[in-house]
Amino acid sequence: MKNSPAKFKESLQEDFLVLLWRQWRTLGIAAYSPETKQPIDLEALILATAIAAEQDRRLWTAAIRWLDYFQDWVNQARLKRMSATFIKPDEYLRQPLIKKEIWQEVESLLSPAHSSNKTTTNTARTHRTLTPPLLKKPPLMQLYLRGIFGVNARAELILFFQVNGEGNSNQIARETFYDQKNIYIILEHWAESGFVSKESRGKQNQYSLNRRDMFLQSNISASSFWNWPLFFQLYSRLLIATSSPPWSNDSYLLSSLFRDIYPQAARIAKKIGITLSDPNLFPGKDFFIPMATALLDLLNKYQ
């Protein structure tokens, strides 16, 4: 039972880092952890690893090395759009979820100037310490689709449909971090070709994938999780709060934060059929233990 802020912090950091290592191992970084079975969102994983950079410098160094060598797989426009909520002051914590100097490392690494300054020696050294990602692995469906469609919105559109079944252009753009107009144009082209079905529902057109059984046979399904930015935002708030005053040693203040983030946590839990305890049933700091336990259980479910 994680019955104190200190014990909760210890378990939270350990389990969060295990999740990150499992995803990076699937991408080709050497690690003792087993590979993940969940579909990986590369841009979200970069953000989450930046959040945890100070907790595990070895992981951060390994991730930076991977990005240096395999950066062509990264959708930089999507990463920039996704990072907006992580690098500005958080609405609950009043501080950024990613430190400026950490994020500057990523920006510098992905800049055109850095790419042009790569040396053959450094590239060869990196090649010896990393395994290229095996794109046929189900968790790497995003990269596999980028290999087919290019590094653009089409890969995330397919994944969205695989996991959610259907959606409108506004919803899809919001959850995949793309421009709504761009998403709409792609969907309309796909509808014309018969690749997706389109159904008018009020003021919105609802789209669904029409040919998922043609070449996208994988373990990616409605049982899989895909909204990693939401997940990592939730747990980054917890990581920072448990390491920062005034929350770090105060179960009452952590309980108050738990109430603030409850809707976000409940949305994630609902995806796998978990119902969180009603905060109204636990006055004051009494909410700390049931919610802390649920948050750790939820984190382990998504390993």
Overview of this protein structure:
- By secondary structure, the chain is mainly alpha-helical.
- A 3-stranded antiparallel beta sheet has the order 1-3-2.
- The radius of gyration is 20 Å and the shape is globular.
- It has a domain at 138-215: Winged helix-like DNA-binding domain superfamily/Winged helix DNA-binding domain (Arc Repressor Mutant, subunit A, Orthogonal Bundle).
- Helix content is 59%, strand content 5%.
- The protein contains 15 helices and 3 strands.
- A hairpin with a 2-residue loop joins strand 2 and strand 3.
- The model has no long low-confidence stretch (mean pLDDT 89).
Give the overall shape, derived from the CA principal axes. globular
Number of helices: 15
> What is the CATH topology of the domain at 138-215?
Arc Repressor Mutant, subunit A
H and E string: HHHHHHHHHEHHEEHHHH
What is the count of β-strands?
A: 3
What percent of residues adopt helix (DSSP H or I)?
55-70%
- How far the N terminus sits from the C terminus, by CA atoms, comes to 20 Å
Q: What is the strand arrangement across the widest sheet?
A: 1-3-2
Query: Structural class given helices, strands, pairing?
Result: mainly alpha
Which percent band covers the strand fraction?
under 5%
What is the residue-averaged pLDDT? 89
Q: Low-confidence parts lasting 5 or more residues at pLDDT below 50?
A: none
The CATH class of the domain at 138-215 turns out to be Mainly Alpha
Instruction: Assign the CATH superfamily of the domain at 138-215.
Output: Winged helix-like DNA-binding domain superfamily/Winged helix DNA-binding domain
CATH architecture heading of the domain at 138-215: Orthogonal Bundle
Rg is: 20 Å
| Main beta sheet | 3 strands, antiparallel
